[in-house]
Sequence to fold (527 residues):
Amino acid sequence: MGRRLALLIATYHYQDDGLRALTAPAHDAEALASVLEDPDIAGFEVTTLINEPHHRVGEAIADLYHDRRHDDLTLLYFTGHGLKDDDGRLYLAMTNTQRRSLLFTSLPAEQVDQAMASCMSRQKVLILDCCYSGAFPAGRVAKADAEVHALERFQGRGRTVLTACDATQYSFEGDQVRGTAAQSVFTRYLVKGLRDGSADLDGDGDISLDELYSYVHDRVVKELPQQRPKKQDNVEGRIVIARNINWSLPAHLHHALNSPIAADRLGAVERLAHLYRIGNDRVRQSALDEIQRLVDDDSRTVSAAAASRVQLLLSPTPELTPPSTSGTKPAAEVQAALPSPQPVTFPNPAHVLGQVLQPQTTHQGQSAVGSDLSSNTKFEPQPTSEPAEPVVPDQDLVKEILDQMELVYGVDVEGELFAPWEQFRVFFMFRGEAEQQVLSVRAFYDRSHDIEVKYKLLEVIDDWNRRTLWPKVYTHAHDDGTLRLIGEVQILIGLGVSLEHFVSSTVSWVQASIEFDKWLVEQLGSE
Fold:
Protein backbone atom coordinates (compact mmCIF):
# COMPACT_ATOMS: atom_id res chain seq x y z
CA MET A 1 0.00 0.00 0.00
CA GLY A 2 1.06 3.57 -0.64
CA ARG A 3 1.87 6.23 1.91
CA ARG A 4 -0.73 8.57 3.41
CA LEU A 5 0.58 12.12 3.67
CA ALA A 6 -1.19 15.26 4.87
CA LEU A 7 -0.13 18.92 4.91
CA LEU A 8 -2.31 21.18 7.05
CA ILE A 9 -1.97 24.96 6.69
CA ALA A 10 -3.68 27.48 8.97
CA THR A 11 -3.24 31.24 8.92
CA TYR A 12 -4.99 33.56 11.35
CA HIS A 13 -2.33 36.18 12.13
CA TYR A 14 -1.71 38.71 9.33
CA GLN A 15 0.68 41.62 8.86
CA ASP A 16 -1.90 43.37 6.68
CA ASP A 17 -4.10 45.49 8.96
CA GLY A 18 -7.21 44.86 6.87
CA LEU A 19 -6.89 41.09 7.09
CA ARG A 20 -6.05 41.25 10.76
CA ALA A 21 -9.36 43.02 11.39
CA LEU A 22 -11.37 40.10 10.02
CA THR A 23 -12.82 37.20 11.96
CA ALA A 24 -9.95 34.80 12.54
CA PRO A 25 -10.50 31.11 11.85
CA ALA A 26 -10.38 28.90 14.91
CA HIS A 27 -7.35 26.75 15.63
CA ASP A 28 -8.88 23.89 13.65
CA ALA A 29 -5.68 22.60 12.06
CA GLU A 30 -4.37 21.21 15.34
CA ALA A 31 -7.58 19.27 15.96
CA LEU A 32 -7.64 17.90 12.42
CA ALA A 33 -3.95 16.96 12.63
CA SER A 34 -4.61 15.02 15.84
CA VAL A 35 -7.30 12.87 14.27
CA LEU A 36 -5.53 12.35 10.93
CA GLU A 37 -2.26 11.19 12.49
CA ASP A 38 -3.99 8.82 14.93
CA PRO A 39 -2.85 5.37 13.70
CA ASP A 40 -6.13 3.78 14.79
CA ILE A 41 -8.23 6.28 12.82
CA ALA A 42 -6.47 7.56 9.69
CA GLY A 43 -2.73 6.91 10.01
CA PHE A 44 -1.48 9.90 8.00
CA GLU A 45 2.01 11.32 8.15
CA VAL A 46 1.00 14.88 9.07
CA THR A 47 2.86 18.17 8.68
CA THR A 48 1.20 21.25 10.21
CA LEU A 49 2.13 24.84 9.38
CA ILE A 50 0.61 27.64 11.47
CA ASN A 51 1.00 31.33 10.51
CA GLU A 52 3.89 30.81 8.09
CA PRO A 53 4.99 33.12 5.22
CA HIS A 54 4.09 32.25 1.64
CA HIS A 55 7.55 30.99 0.62
CA ARG A 56 7.69 28.52 3.51
CA VAL A 57 4.23 27.19 2.68
CA GLY A 58 5.12 26.94 -1.01
CA GLU A 59 8.15 24.80 -0.20
CA ALA A 60 6.03 22.48 1.96
CA ILE A 61 3.45 22.07 -0.81
CA ALA A 62 6.21 21.23 -3.27
CA ASP A 63 7.49 18.57 -0.84
CA LEU A 64 3.99 17.12 -0.41
CA TYR A 65 3.55 16.48 -4.13
CA HIS A 66 7.17 15.68 -5.08
CA ASP A 67 8.18 12.14 -6.02
CA ARG A 68 4.88 10.51 -5.12
CA ARG A 69 3.81 7.04 -6.24
CA HIS A 70 0.53 6.24 -7.99
CA ASP A 71 -0.93 4.60 -4.88
CA ASP A 72 0.05 7.35 -2.41
CA LEU A 73 -2.78 9.35 -0.85
CA THR A 74 -2.05 13.07 -0.42
CA LEU A 75 -4.21 15.51 1.53
CA LEU A 76 -3.72 19.29 1.50
CA TYR A 77 -5.85 21.33 3.91
CA PHE A 78 -6.00 25.11 4.18
CA THR A 79 -7.94 27.28 6.60
CA GLY A 80 -7.73 31.05 6.37
CA HIS A 81 -8.61 33.80 3.91
CA GLY A 82 -8.95 33.49 0.16
CA LEU A 83 -8.50 36.70 -1.83
CA LYS A 84 -9.37 37.57 -5.45
CA ASP A 85 -7.59 40.17 -7.52
CA ASP A 86 -9.19 42.43 -10.14
CA ASP A 87 -8.85 39.71 -12.78
CA GLY A 88 -10.67 37.14 -10.66
CA ARG A 89 -7.55 35.11 -9.81
CA LEU A 90 -7.65 33.39 -6.43
CA TYR A 91 -4.90 33.60 -3.80
CA LEU A 92 -4.55 31.96 -0.40
CA ALA A 93 -3.46 34.50 2.21
CA MET A 94 -0.42 33.76 4.35
CA THR A 95 0.82 35.60 7.42
CA ASN A 96 2.95 37.99 5.28
CA THR A 97 0.32 38.58 2.57
CA GLN A 98 -0.26 42.20 1.50
CA ARG A 99 -3.41 42.92 -0.48
CA ARG A 100 -1.56 45.44 -2.65
CA SER A 101 0.91 42.72 -3.76
CA LEU A 102 -0.93 39.40 -3.84
CA LEU A 103 1.21 37.90 -6.59
CA PHE A 104 4.41 38.16 -4.55
CA THR A 105 3.19 37.76 -0.96
CA SER A 106 0.51 35.07 -1.10
CA LEU A 107 0.00 31.58 -2.52
CA PRO A 108 -1.69 31.69 -5.97
CA ALA A 109 -4.29 29.01 -6.56
CA GLU A 110 -2.69 28.47 -9.97
CA GLN A 111 0.55 27.48 -8.25
CA VAL A 112 -1.21 24.89 -6.12
CA ASP A 113 -2.99 23.58 -9.21
CA GLN A 114 0.33 23.15 -11.05
CA ALA A 115 1.89 21.32 -8.10
CA MET A 116 -1.04 18.90 -7.99
CA ALA A 117 -0.92 18.38 -11.76
CA SER A 118 2.74 17.33 -11.59
CA CYS A 119 2.09 14.78 -8.82
CA MET A 120 1.83 11.10 -9.87
CA SER A 121 -0.58 10.18 -7.07
CA ARG A 122 -4.03 9.12 -8.27
CA GLN A 123 -5.58 10.14 -4.96
CA LYS A 124 -5.06 13.82 -4.26
CA VAL A 125 -7.41 15.46 -1.75
CA LEU A 126 -7.66 19.25 -1.36
CA ILE A 127 -9.78 20.72 1.45
CA LEU A 128 -10.38 24.48 1.61
CA ASP A 129 -12.01 25.92 4.72
CA CYS A 130 -11.79 29.52 3.51
CA CYS A 131 -13.67 32.74 3.99
CA TYR A 132 -13.35 34.63 0.70
CA SER A 133 -13.14 38.33 -0.09
CA GLY A 134 -13.57 40.24 -3.31
CA ALA A 135 -16.26 40.32 -5.96
CA PHE A 136 -14.36 39.96 -9.21
CA PRO A 137 -15.31 36.86 -11.20
CA ALA A 138 -12.97 35.33 -13.75
CA GLY A 139 -13.04 37.26 -17.03
CA ARG A 140 -13.95 40.64 -15.48
CA VAL A 141 -17.66 39.99 -15.78
CA ALA A 142 -20.21 41.64 -13.46
CA LYS A 143 -18.56 42.53 -10.16
CA ALA A 144 -21.76 41.62 -8.37
CA ASP A 145 -21.00 37.92 -8.89
CA ALA A 146 -20.52 36.53 -5.40
CA GLU A 147 -19.07 33.17 -6.47
CA VAL A 148 -15.38 32.33 -6.09
CA HIS A 149 -15.43 29.39 -8.56
CA ALA A 150 -12.87 27.59 -6.40
CA LEU A 151 -13.73 24.14 -7.77
CA GLU A 152 -13.07 25.26 -11.35
CA ARG A 153 -9.55 26.32 -10.39
CA PHE A 154 -8.55 22.88 -9.15
CA GLN A 155 -9.93 20.52 -11.77
CA GLY A 156 -7.78 17.55 -12.70
CA ARG A 157 -7.63 13.80 -12.84
CA GLY A 158 -7.07 11.96 -9.59
CA ARG A 159 -8.31 14.87 -7.46
CA THR A 160 -11.07 15.42 -4.96
CA VAL A 161 -11.73 18.99 -3.79
CA LEU A 162 -13.90 19.90 -0.80
CA THR A 163 -14.74 23.52 -0.02
CA ALA A 164 -16.51 24.94 3.02
CA CYS A 165 -18.29 27.41 0.74
CA ASP A 166 -17.81 29.15 -2.59
CA ALA A 167 -19.19 32.63 -1.95
CA THR A 168 -17.41 35.91 -1.23
CA GLN A 169 -18.40 36.97 2.25
CA TYR A 170 -16.78 40.38 2.55
CA SER A 171 -15.05 43.07 0.47
CA PHE A 172 -12.81 46.05 0.97
CA GLU A 173 -13.18 49.77 0.45
CA GLY A 174 -9.65 50.85 1.16
CA ASP A 175 -8.89 49.24 4.51
CA GLN A 176 -12.54 49.22 5.53
CA VAL A 177 -14.18 45.82 5.61
CA ARG A 178 -17.71 45.35 4.31
CA GLY A 179 -19.47 42.14 5.29
CA THR A 180 -18.49 39.40 7.74
CA ALA A 181 -16.93 36.00 7.36
CA ALA A 182 -19.08 33.00 8.20
CA GLN A 183 -18.39 31.05 11.35
CA SER A 184 -16.09 28.11 10.64
CA VAL A 185 -18.09 24.98 11.36
CA PHE A 186 -16.82 22.97 8.39
CA THR A 187 -13.61 21.71 10.00
CA ARG A 188 -15.35 21.14 13.30
CA TYR A 189 -17.61 18.58 11.64
CA LEU A 190 -14.71 17.11 9.65
CA VAL A 191 -12.96 16.36 12.93
CA LYS A 192 -16.09 15.11 14.68
CA GLY A 193 -17.09 12.76 11.85
CA LEU A 194 -13.64 11.20 11.81
CA ARG A 195 -12.99 11.11 15.55
CA ASP A 196 -16.22 9.48 16.71
CA GLY A 197 -16.90 7.56 13.47
CA SER A 198 -20.29 9.21 12.86
CA ALA A 199 -19.28 9.84 9.22
CA ASP A 200 -19.37 6.08 8.57
CA LEU A 201 -22.79 6.41 6.97
CA ASP A 202 -23.06 2.90 5.49
CA GLY A 203 -21.80 1.15 8.64
CA ASP A 204 -19.02 -0.79 6.89
CA GLY A 205 -16.35 0.30 9.40
CA ASP A 206 -14.57 2.60 6.93
CA ILE A 207 -15.14 6.30 6.29
CA SER A 208 -14.87 7.13 2.61
CA LEU A 209 -14.29 10.65 1.35
CA ASP A 210 -17.78 10.69 -0.17
CA GLU A 211 -19.30 9.71 3.18
CA LEU A 212 -17.26 12.33 5.03
CA TYR A 213 -18.39 15.07 2.65
CA SER A 214 -22.06 14.04 2.86
CA TYR A 215 -21.88 13.98 6.64
CA VAL A 216 -20.22 17.40 6.89
CA HIS A 217 -22.42 19.00 4.22
CA ASP A 218 -25.67 18.02 5.93
CA ARG A 219 -24.56 19.26 9.34
CA VAL A 220 -23.09 22.53 8.10
CA VAL A 221 -26.24 23.36 6.13
CA LYS A 222 -28.43 22.48 9.10
CA GLU A 223 -26.44 24.78 11.40
CA LEU A 224 -25.76 27.54 8.84
CA PRO A 225 -28.31 27.33 6.01
CA GLN A 226 -26.59 30.17 4.15
CA GLN A 227 -23.34 28.19 3.88
CA ARG A 228 -23.17 25.50 1.19
CA PRO A 229 -20.12 23.21 1.11
CA LYS A 230 -19.22 21.84 -2.32
CA LYS A 231 -17.34 18.85 -3.70
CA GLN A 232 -15.69 18.01 -7.00
CA ASP A 233 -13.89 14.79 -7.86
CA ASN A 234 -12.28 13.00 -10.76
CA VAL A 235 -11.06 9.85 -9.05
CA GLU A 236 -11.37 6.22 -10.06
CA GLY A 237 -12.84 4.22 -7.21
CA ARG A 238 -13.38 4.91 -3.55
CA ILE A 239 -11.01 6.80 -1.26
CA VAL A 240 -11.06 5.52 2.31
CA ILE A 241 -9.97 8.39 4.51
CA ALA A 242 -10.29 6.75 7.95
CA ARG A 243 -11.59 3.86 10.02
CA ASN A 244 -14.58 4.02 12.34
CA ILE A 245 -12.92 3.18 15.66
CA ASN A 246 -16.28 3.21 17.44
CA TRP A 247 -17.98 0.74 15.12
CA SER A 248 -20.28 -1.73 16.82
CA LEU A 249 -22.95 -4.11 15.66
CA PRO A 250 -26.08 -2.11 14.75
CA ALA A 251 -28.81 -2.04 17.40
CA HIS A 252 -31.39 -3.66 15.13
CA LEU A 253 -29.07 -6.64 14.64
CA HIS A 254 -28.50 -6.92 18.38
CA HIS A 255 -32.25 -7.08 18.90
CA ALA A 256 -32.69 -9.66 16.12
CA LEU A 257 -29.88 -11.88 17.42
CA ASN A 258 -31.30 -11.84 20.95
CA SER A 259 -34.90 -12.25 19.85
CA PRO A 260 -36.75 -15.37 21.07
CA ILE A 261 -38.42 -15.51 17.64
CA ALA A 262 -36.54 -17.78 15.22
CA ALA A 263 -37.66 -15.76 12.17
CA ASP A 264 -35.89 -12.68 13.57
CA ARG A 265 -32.65 -14.62 14.06
CA LEU A 266 -32.97 -16.13 10.58
CA GLY A 267 -33.31 -12.66 9.08
CA ALA A 268 -30.19 -11.61 10.97
CA VAL A 269 -28.12 -14.21 9.10
CA GLU A 270 -28.53 -12.41 5.76
CA ARG A 271 -28.01 -8.98 7.30
CA LEU A 272 -24.80 -10.22 8.91
CA ALA A 273 -23.68 -11.67 5.59
CA HIS A 274 -24.30 -8.27 4.01
CA LEU A 275 -22.07 -6.66 6.65
CA TYR A 276 -19.42 -9.26 5.93
CA ARG A 277 -19.49 -8.39 2.22
CA ILE A 278 -19.26 -4.62 2.62
CA GLY A 279 -17.21 -4.32 5.80
CA ASN A 280 -13.57 -3.84 6.63
CA ASP A 281 -11.58 -6.51 8.48
CA ARG A 282 -13.00 -5.63 11.90
CA VAL A 283 -16.59 -5.61 10.65
CA ARG A 284 -16.12 -8.85 8.70
CA GLN A 285 -14.72 -10.64 11.72
CA SER A 286 -17.54 -9.43 13.96
CA ALA A 287 -20.19 -10.46 11.43
CA LEU A 288 -18.56 -13.86 10.93
CA ASP A 289 -18.36 -14.46 14.69
CA GLU A 290 -22.07 -13.79 15.04
CA ILE A 291 -22.99 -16.05 12.11
CA GLN A 292 -20.81 -18.84 13.52
CA ARG A 293 -22.55 -18.43 16.86
CA LEU A 294 -25.88 -18.98 15.11
CA VAL A 295 -24.62 -22.33 13.80
CA ASP A 296 -25.39 -23.64 17.31
CA ASP A 297 -28.84 -22.02 17.40
CA ASP A 298 -31.61 -24.23 18.81
CA SER A 299 -33.67 -23.64 15.67
CA ARG A 300 -32.68 -26.10 12.94
CA THR A 301 -33.67 -23.60 10.24
CA VAL A 302 -31.49 -20.86 11.70
CA SER A 303 -28.60 -23.26 12.35
CA ALA A 304 -28.70 -24.65 8.79
CA ALA A 305 -28.86 -21.18 7.25
CA ALA A 306 -25.92 -19.99 9.36
CA ALA A 307 -23.83 -23.08 8.55
CA SER A 308 -24.50 -22.67 4.83
CA ARG A 309 -23.57 -18.98 4.95
CA VAL A 310 -20.34 -19.66 6.85
CA GLN A 311 -19.32 -22.27 4.28
CA LEU A 312 -19.98 -19.81 1.45
CA LEU A 313 -18.22 -16.87 3.08
CA LEU A 314 -15.12 -18.89 3.92
CA SER A 315 -14.82 -20.54 0.51
CA PRO A 316 -11.41 -19.54 -0.90
CA THR A 317 -11.60 -17.60 -4.17
CA PRO A 318 -9.05 -18.26 -5.40
CA GLU A 319 -6.65 -20.61 -3.57
CA LEU A 320 -3.40 -18.99 -2.42
CA THR A 321 -0.18 -20.96 -2.82
CA PRO A 322 3.43 -20.50 -1.67
CA PRO A 323 5.57 -17.84 -3.38
CA SER A 324 6.72 -18.53 -6.93
CA THR A 325 10.23 -18.08 -8.21
CA SER A 326 8.96 -16.85 -11.57
CA GLY A 327 6.50 -14.01 -12.19
CA THR A 328 4.84 -15.00 -15.48
CA LYS A 329 4.40 -18.26 -17.36
CA PRO A 330 5.14 -18.40 -21.07
CA ALA A 331 2.28 -18.27 -23.56
CA ALA A 332 2.31 -22.06 -24.03
CA GLU A 333 1.42 -22.62 -20.36
CA VAL A 334 -1.32 -20.01 -20.47
CA GLN A 335 -2.72 -21.82 -23.51
CA ALA A 336 -2.63 -25.08 -21.58
CA ALA A 337 -4.55 -23.51 -18.69
CA LEU A 338 -7.19 -22.07 -21.02
CA PRO A 339 -9.19 -24.27 -23.40
CA SER A 340 -8.97 -22.89 -26.93
CA PRO A 341 -11.55 -20.11 -27.28
CA GLN A 342 -13.81 -19.67 -30.28
CA PRO A 343 -13.06 -16.46 -32.25
CA VAL A 344 -15.71 -13.75 -31.86
CA THR A 345 -16.07 -10.21 -33.12
CA PHE A 346 -15.48 -7.51 -30.48
CA PRO A 347 -17.30 -6.16 -28.46
CA ASN A 348 -19.52 -9.21 -27.81
CA PRO A 349 -17.27 -11.64 -25.87
CA ALA A 350 -19.97 -13.50 -23.93
CA HIS A 351 -19.89 -16.52 -26.31
CA VAL A 352 -16.10 -16.73 -26.03
CA LEU A 353 -16.23 -16.67 -22.25
CA GLY A 354 -18.79 -19.46 -22.28
CA GLN A 355 -16.42 -21.57 -24.39
CA VAL A 356 -13.34 -20.75 -22.30
CA LEU A 357 -14.78 -22.09 -19.08
CA GLN A 358 -17.45 -24.79 -19.24
CA PRO A 359 -20.20 -24.69 -16.59
CA GLN A 360 -20.13 -27.39 -13.97
CA THR A 361 -22.64 -28.32 -11.32
CA THR A 362 -22.04 -27.17 -7.77
CA HIS A 363 -23.83 -28.35 -4.65
CA GLN A 364 -23.60 -25.07 -2.75
CA GLY A 365 -26.84 -23.68 -4.18
CA GLN A 366 -25.20 -20.37 -5.10
CA SER A 367 -24.14 -18.82 -8.39
CA ALA A 368 -20.43 -18.03 -8.45
CA VAL A 369 -20.99 -15.38 -11.13
CA GLY A 370 -23.99 -13.41 -12.23
CA SER A 371 -24.73 -15.19 -15.52
CA ASP A 372 -27.84 -16.90 -14.19
CA LEU A 373 -28.96 -15.91 -10.71
CA SER A 374 -31.29 -18.88 -10.47
CA SER A 375 -28.86 -21.55 -11.64
CA ASN A 376 -26.59 -23.78 -9.57
CA THR A 377 -23.57 -23.45 -11.82
CA LYS A 378 -20.15 -22.03 -11.51
CA PHE A 379 -17.25 -21.72 -13.90
CA GLU A 380 -14.21 -23.92 -13.52
CA PRO A 381 -11.28 -24.58 -15.85
CA GLN A 382 -11.01 -27.85 -17.71
CA PRO A 383 -8.41 -30.17 -16.19
CA THR A 384 -4.97 -30.06 -17.71
CA SER A 385 -2.52 -32.91 -18.04
CA GLU A 386 -0.17 -31.46 -15.40
CA PRO A 387 -0.95 -29.19 -12.45
CA ALA A 388 0.17 -25.61 -13.03
CA GLU A 389 2.94 -24.21 -10.88
CA PRO A 390 2.23 -21.16 -8.71
CA VAL A 391 2.93 -17.75 -10.25
CA VAL A 392 3.01 -14.12 -9.20
CA PRO A 393 0.78 -12.62 -11.91
CA ASP A 394 1.67 -9.40 -13.69
CA GLN A 395 0.21 -7.29 -16.47
CA ASP A 396 1.78 -9.43 -19.20
CA LEU A 397 0.05 -12.54 -17.87
CA VAL A 398 -3.32 -10.76 -17.87
CA LYS A 399 -2.69 -9.63 -21.45
CA GLU A 400 -2.02 -13.23 -22.48
CA ILE A 401 -5.29 -14.33 -20.89
CA LEU A 402 -7.20 -11.56 -22.67
CA ASP A 403 -5.54 -12.58 -25.94
CA GLN A 404 -6.73 -16.14 -25.46
CA MET A 405 -10.23 -14.81 -24.82
CA GLU A 406 -10.10 -12.84 -28.09
CA LEU A 407 -10.78 -9.58 -26.22
CA VAL A 408 -9.62 -6.15 -27.30
CA TYR A 409 -7.64 -4.31 -24.63
CA GLY A 410 -5.45 -1.25 -24.23
CA VAL A 411 -3.21 0.59 -21.77
CA ASP A 412 -4.16 4.12 -20.69
CA VAL A 413 -1.80 7.07 -20.21
CA GLU A 414 -1.14 6.03 -16.59
CA GLY A 415 -0.15 2.51 -17.58
CA GLU A 416 -3.36 0.80 -16.48
CA LEU A 417 -4.50 -2.22 -18.50
CA PHE A 418 -8.19 -2.18 -19.46
CA ALA A 419 -10.71 -3.93 -21.71
CA PRO A 420 -13.45 -1.65 -23.11
CA TRP A 421 -17.07 -2.40 -23.90
CA GLU A 422 -19.68 -0.02 -25.25
CA GLN A 423 -21.16 0.78 -21.83
CA PHE A 424 -18.35 -0.10 -19.43
CA ARG A 425 -14.62 -0.71 -19.02
CA VAL A 426 -12.82 -3.36 -16.97
CA PHE A 427 -9.46 -2.32 -15.51
CA PHE A 428 -6.77 -4.67 -14.17
CA MET A 429 -4.94 -2.61 -11.54
CA PHE A 430 -1.87 -3.83 -9.64
CA ARG A 431 -1.40 -2.26 -6.20
CA GLY A 432 1.13 -2.70 -3.40
CA GLU A 433 4.52 -4.38 -3.33
CA ALA A 434 6.13 -7.73 -2.52
CA GLU A 435 3.93 -10.03 -0.43
CA GLN A 436 1.26 -7.33 -0.09
CA GLN A 437 0.68 -6.91 -3.84
CA VAL A 438 -2.97 -7.04 -4.87
CA LEU A 439 -4.71 -7.23 -8.25
CA SER A 440 -7.90 -5.18 -8.33
CA VAL A 441 -10.26 -5.98 -11.22
CA ARG A 442 -12.52 -2.93 -11.39
CA ALA A 443 -15.43 -2.33 -13.78
CA PHE A 444 -16.60 1.25 -14.42
CA TYR A 445 -20.14 1.34 -15.78
CA ASP A 446 -20.61 4.44 -17.91
CA ARG A 447 -24.39 4.67 -17.85
CA SER A 448 -25.48 7.55 -15.61
CA HIS A 449 -28.53 7.19 -13.39
CA ASP A 450 -30.64 10.06 -12.07
CA ILE A 451 -30.73 10.59 -8.32
CA GLU A 452 -34.50 9.88 -8.40
CA VAL A 453 -33.80 6.18 -8.98
CA LYS A 454 -31.20 5.96 -6.20
CA TYR A 455 -33.24 3.78 -3.85
CA LYS A 456 -34.35 1.43 -6.61
CA LEU A 457 -30.74 1.24 -7.79
CA LEU A 458 -29.45 0.47 -4.30
CA GLU A 459 -32.08 -2.24 -3.93
CA VAL A 460 -31.00 -3.83 -7.22
CA ILE A 461 -27.31 -3.62 -6.29
CA ASP A 462 -27.92 -5.10 -2.85
CA ASP A 463 -29.81 -7.98 -4.47
CA TRP A 464 -26.87 -8.62 -6.81
CA ASN A 465 -24.32 -8.45 -3.99
CA ARG A 466 -26.40 -10.82 -1.89
CA ARG A 467 -26.78 -13.44 -4.60
CA THR A 468 -23.34 -13.41 -6.18
CA LEU A 469 -19.74 -13.57 -5.06
CA TRP A 470 -18.39 -10.93 -7.43
CA PRO A 471 -18.09 -8.23 -8.44
CA LYS A 472 -18.99 -6.23 -5.36
CA VAL A 473 -20.89 -3.26 -6.81
CA TYR A 474 -21.24 0.20 -5.26
CA THR A 475 -22.39 3.66 -6.34
CA HIS A 476 -20.49 6.88 -6.95
CA ALA A 477 -22.34 10.23 -6.94
CA HIS A 478 -21.33 13.09 -9.25
CA ASP A 479 -21.79 16.75 -8.35
CA ASP A 480 -24.57 17.03 -10.96
CA GLY A 481 -26.62 14.49 -8.98
CA THR A 482 -26.17 11.55 -11.34
CA LEU A 483 -25.00 8.16 -10.08
CA ARG A 484 -22.38 5.87 -11.58
CA LEU A 485 -21.81 2.22 -10.73
CA ILE A 486 -18.46 0.58 -10.03
CA GLY A 487 -17.82 -3.14 -9.56
CA GLU A 488 -14.68 -4.52 -7.95
CA VAL A 489 -13.03 -7.71 -6.81
CA GLN A 490 -9.52 -8.09 -5.39
CA ILE A 491 -7.05 -10.94 -5.02
CA LEU A 492 -3.83 -11.07 -3.03
CA ILE A 493 -1.12 -12.14 -5.49
CA GLY A 494 2.09 -11.24 -3.70
CA LEU A 495 2.44 -14.70 -2.15
CA GLY A 496 1.81 -16.42 -5.49
CA VAL A 497 -1.32 -18.08 -6.83
CA SER A 498 -2.13 -21.20 -8.80
CA LEU A 499 -2.06 -20.36 -12.51
CA GLU A 500 -5.15 -22.44 -13.14
CA HIS A 501 -7.09 -20.70 -10.39
CA PHE A 502 -5.89 -17.29 -11.53
CA VAL A 503 -6.94 -17.91 -15.14
CA SER A 504 -10.31 -19.29 -14.03
CA SER A 505 -10.94 -16.39 -11.66
CA THR A 506 -9.87 -13.70 -14.15
CA VAL A 507 -12.20 -15.03 -16.84
CA SER A 508 -15.03 -15.43 -14.33
CA TRP A 509 -14.59 -11.86 -13.12
CA VAL A 510 -14.77 -10.51 -16.66
CA GLN A 511 -17.81 -12.70 -17.33
CA ALA A 512 -19.52 -11.46 -14.17
CA SER A 513 -18.81 -7.82 -15.10
CA ILE A 514 -20.54 -8.38 -18.43
CA GLU A 515 -23.44 -10.24 -16.88
CA PHE A 516 -24.01 -7.55 -14.25
CA ASP A 517 -24.37 -4.93 -16.99
CA LYS A 518 -26.94 -7.10 -18.80
CA TRP A 519 -28.74 -7.98 -15.57
CA LEU A 520 -28.95 -4.33 -14.48
CA VAL A 521 -30.60 -3.36 -17.78
CA GLU A 522 -33.12 -6.14 -17.29
CA GLN A 523 -33.87 -5.11 -13.70
CA LEU A 524 -34.27 -1.41 -14.49
CA GLY A 525 -36.05 -2.01 -17.78
CA SER A 526 -33.81 0.33 -19.80
CA GLU A 527 -30.88 0.20 -22.19
In short: The chain is about 35% helix and 25% strand. Residues 499-524 form the longest helix (26 residues). Confidence is low (pLDDT under 50) at residues 134-145, 316-385.
